[in-house]
Amino acid sequence: MTPTALHLDAVTVRFAALTAVDRVSMTVRRGERWAVIGPNGAGKTTLFRTISGEVLPSSGRITLLDHDVTRKPAYRRAHRGLGRTYQITNLFSELSVVENVAIAALGRTRSRFRSWWPLRMERDVSRRAREALEQVHLAHRHDTPVAELSHGEQRHLEIAVALAADPAVLLLDEPAAGLSSSERMLMRRLITELPRELTVVLIEHDMNLALELVEHVVCMDNGETIATGSPDEIRANERVQAVYLKSD
Ligand SMILES: Nc1ncnc2c1ncn2[C@@H]1O[C@H](COP(=O)(O)OP(=O)(O)OP(=O)(O)O)[C@@H](O)[C@H]1O
């Protein structure tokens, strides 16, 4: 059986009296693509922040690539192979496209200091940065200042920044939020073309888009998992239809 990339066991997050995530469990195997969907306030972002280590769970257990990371800080999870993008851009707008990606690639380089280290590191960083830009179709914008990119290009660059750190598991936080319909098509293509060995979990408010991109879906409402299944099973699920109708 394919090894597990990410396992959540009854993960619960409480903010005072509010249970934002309520005993959510999921087993994501390496190379799988999953979406977490649900209406506003369902708990998707909190679940993501808990997986990435920005929020610690009140109870439950999180395993990343066979390591228990439940109480580990975000940077330790990143070193273990977890990458993520954010709904709110975290790019350096005054720097160029390649500089943004190179900073992320540099963070991943953990070579020990040796006399030839700077040269080797420079080669490694610029190769990884170039590859990441090619993966998101931004190689032609290499030297462009980020401030001059369109919104859609900036969303692509955010994915390149995450890829430059060479993650094994990538969390995409609403990758299509705020994009025009043509930009959404490009984003859909980009996600579809991500390397198959990369495990991808995405949050997406747009159920139709999310279901086109993944093979496995978790639908949350009020912090709870109300359905898990294939896109077809989720489309046909009456509870899912009810929560989406309620939120329209
Ligand atoms: N830091 C926090 N402190 C207190 N309550 C919070 C905090 N973060 C989230 N919440 C609450 O937890 C619940 C779940 O919020 P969350 O942002 O995870 O939902 P969501 O599914 O991502 O919603 P959206 O689609 O609107 O982003 C909401 O009621 C929200 O107000």
From TrEMBL:
GO terms for molecular function: ATP binding; ATP hydrolysis activity; L-isoleucine transmembrane transporter activity; L-phenylalanine transmembrane transporter activity; L-valine transmembrane transporter activity. PROSITE patterns: ABC_TRANSPORTER_2. GO terms for biological process: D-alanine transmembrane transport; L-alanine transport; L-isoleucine import across plasma membrane; L-valine import across plasma membrane. SMART domains: AAA (SM00382). The keyword ATP-binding applies. InterPro entries: AAA+_ATPase, ABC_AA/LPS_Transport, ABC_transporter-like_ATP-bd, BCA_ABC_TP_C, P-loop_NTPase. GO terms for cellular component: plasma membrane. Pfam families: ABC_tran, BCA_ABC_TP_C. Signal peptide: none annotated. This is ABC transporter ATP-binding protein. It comes from Phytoactinopolyspora halophila. Keywords: ATP-binding, Nucleotide-binding, Transport. CDD domains: ABC_Mj1267_LivG_branched (cd03219).
